[in-house]
Design goal:
The protein folds into two domains: about 40-290, no CATH class; about 315-445 and about 525-600, no CATH class. The chain contains 20 helices and two strands. The protein has helices spanning about 1-15, 35-80, 85-110, 125-155, 160-185, 190-235, 250-280, 290, 305-330, 335-365, 375-405, 410-440, 445-450, 450-460, 465-490, 495-525, 525-550, 555-560, 560-565, 570-600, and strands spanning about 115-120, 185-190. The protein has a two-stranded antiparallel ribbon with strand order 1-2. Helix 9 runs antiparallel to helix 10.
């Protein structure tokens, strides 16, 4: 104590020789000697250690569950006699019941405790993600309803598990969608370990459901080929024991199941991404700067050429997809349909790559500050973009090796080779554009308010609101006076005059809307306009590239070139794991591009 007093007195004695206005010298004050500082530091260290331990334990729990489920599903694939699909369904039903118990406990218990949710992450669970959860969840519920109806019709050759498993699946999907819609932004501050374990268990269950959906998609494709053979054998009066009877309701259940099947895989992946962000936000305390940051809203302003070019790409892709589906579903697909399909991609992919490169250059010219705040959602977006792109890139490299080794001079082979190279380049350039855009600071209204002269310069070229309103009022008085004269002269034509007034009012409203849109377009700088045009064009292109493989266009397996080179089993596995990741990549790219459009 005496030593401490002496050490505190020496600086004070030294400061007395200085002028009174000079601040005291605090460089010799050792804060680590104070009890309160040491106590707070130790508490923070213990909190960080407890957080790391909880994350490690919950991660190990999820890893063991995933490995167990993968072992079951792999055993079912390689030895379906020892491990059946019903046993895999039983395991997943147990996991889903455990997840349901935890979700109900979180909704009714954990989240309602005092001081449970002190912070909410504004970046987590954006509206397009939660809307995707509801959309894909609704389609998955309808899918399971079709599966139940199909199993009830074929109850003589189906087991009770075929009805029980979809029923539990419907309950799990509805409860999970409700949970994610209301609590995806939560930064829970109580029961950290239990919440982390519950979230990781739910993530592992969704991953296993996705893996089962992927493997069932392969079985589903084999069933379709068997159904074609069954239909051909029906012409020879041959019957089978378990086939869909020739009734309308059974055909509806069967076709509906086929149509809605891809949405189930997308639902599982989207739920995994939202749950992972919630897991990262457990115990997180958000700073005031992150809370007060203004978030721009989506408005269809400042774009003209992007929607036009994107609409052309969507309409053309829809026509190509329909022609492909009509011709490729036959017993022997025509060679020309593959030429048409790959030619469409060869035209579209360079346009998308050029747009992404130009957008990246504009990002470099803007010199906008980077957003360095801690954001688990943005980090996950980057990981998902890079990881999901590996599915398409891996398939393309396998195709390149197979085509170069066989006959690259052939027309169809050269088209597939060009398609593979362009797709790799497009994925890389689009990832660079999206990731670069996600790490930049948002432009808010306060920044625009610092440059009123720039906006006023553009606004002065257009008629002001007062002039527009005055002109509209003058037109209204003129039209009303002319209508009064017409009503005096022709009282029998009141209905026609009312229609004329309504048409004039409609024209005035359209004029106001067009003037406001032109004003919003002219206010933006050329860099922001270009970014919005490019991002909107890429959004529409990624949507059509998501629709085509999602609803059944699988030329990578149906053309037979890579399949003959690698063998049926090997290429089947490559396509079956690469194609769902490619579909998820397109959907996730739409979200990143929409954020770039909004923040441009």
């Amino acid at each position: 104590m005496l030593a401490n007093k002496v050490s505190r007195q020496k600086p004070c004695h030294h400061c007395m020789s200085r002028p009174a206005a000079a601040p005291p010298d605090t460089s010799t004050i050792h804060y680590e000697k104070f009890w309160l500082y040491r106590h707070c530091s130790s508490v923070q260290q213990r909190d960080r250690q407890a957080q790391k331990a909880g994350q490690l334990f919950s991660g190990l729990l999820a890893m063991n569950v995933v490995f167990l489920g993968c072992a079951f599903i792999s055993s079912m694939i390689f030895n379906h006699m020892a491990i059946t699909l019903a046993e895999v369904w039983i395991l997943l039903s147990i996991l889903k019941v455990l997840c349901l118990c935890w979700i109900v406990y979180y909704l009714l218990g954990t989240s309602r405790q005092p001081h449970a949710v002190l912070h909410r992450d504004s970046h987590a669970g954006p509206i397009w993600i939660r809307g995707s959860v509801l959309l894909f969840g609704s389609c998955s519920v309808l899918l399971n309803a079709f599966q139940i109806g199909y199993s009830v019709i074929l109850i003589q050759c189906k087991s009770k598990v075929d009805i029980l498993f979809p029923s539990i699946e419907i309950l799990f999907i509805c409860t999970q969608a409700l949970f994610l819609w209301h609590h995806s932004k939560d930064c829970i501050q109580v029961q950290h370990n239990l919440t982390r374990c519950g979230l990781m268990l739910t993530i592992a269950t969704n991953l296993l459901l996705w893996l089962l959906a992927v493997t069932n998609d392969t079985i589903h494709m084999e069933i379709e080929s068997q159904l074609r053979e069954v239909e051909q054998r029906f012409a020879g009066n041959e019957t089978t024991s378990c086939t869909c009877p020739n009734t309308t309701i059974c055909k509806v259940f069967q076709k509906g199941y086929i149509l809605l099947y891809p949405f189930n895989t997308e639902y599982c992946l989207v739920c995994c991404s939202v749950l992972y962000v919630m897991w990262k936000n457990v115990g997180r305390r958000i700073s005031h700067a992150d809370i007060s940051q203004a978030k721009p809203k989506f408005r269809l302003q400042g774009v003209v050429f992007g929607p036009l070019l994107g609409a052309v790409a969507v309409i053309t892709g829809t026509c190509v997809f329909m022609l492909y589906q009509i011709q490729a579903t036959g017993s022997v697909p025509d060679r020309q349909v593959f030429v048409m399909y790959y030619s469409y991609y060869i035209v579209l992919l360079p346009l998308m790559s050029v747009g992404a490169v130009v957008g990246t250059i504009i990002h470099a010219l803007e010199k906008r500050e980077l957003d360095t705040l801690k954001n688990p959602t943005r980090s996950l977006d980057v990981i998902l973009l890079m990881g999901a792109a590996l599915g398409q890139i891996g398939m393309c490299y396998f195709s390149i090796v197979a085509l170069v080794a066989t006959d690259p001079v052939d027309l169809l082979n050269s088209l597939i080779l060009s398609y593979s190279v362009l797709l790799i380049f497009q994925n890389i350039t689009q990832n660079v554009f999206i990731i670069d855009g996600l790490h930049r600071q948002h432009i808010v209204a306060a920044v625009e308010a610092k440059h009123p002269g720039h906006n006023g310069q553009h606004a002065s070229e257009l008629p002001s609101e007062e002039e527009t309103m005055a002109g509209s009022k003058q037109e209204e008085t003129q039209t009303s006076s002319s209508n009064e004269e017409d009503m005096k002269e022709e009282q029998n034509h009141e209905g026609c005059d009312q229609r004329r007034v309504s048409v004039i009012e409609l024209g005035q409203e359209l004029r106001k809307v067009s003037l406001s849109y032109i004003h919003s377009y002219s206010v933006l700088t050329w860099k922001r306009r270009a970014l919005r045009e490019i991002s909107f064009f890429l959004v529409l292109c990624n949507i059509i590239l998501w629709v085509m493989p999602t609803f059944g266009a699988h030329p990578a397996f149906e053309n037979g070139l890579e399949k003959s080179f690698y063998g049926y089993s090997t290429w089947f596995v490559i396509v079956n794991f690469g194609l769902p990741l490619g579909v998820f990549y397109r959907m996730h790219s739409v979200g990143g591009l929409l954020e770039i459009y909004v923040t441009a």
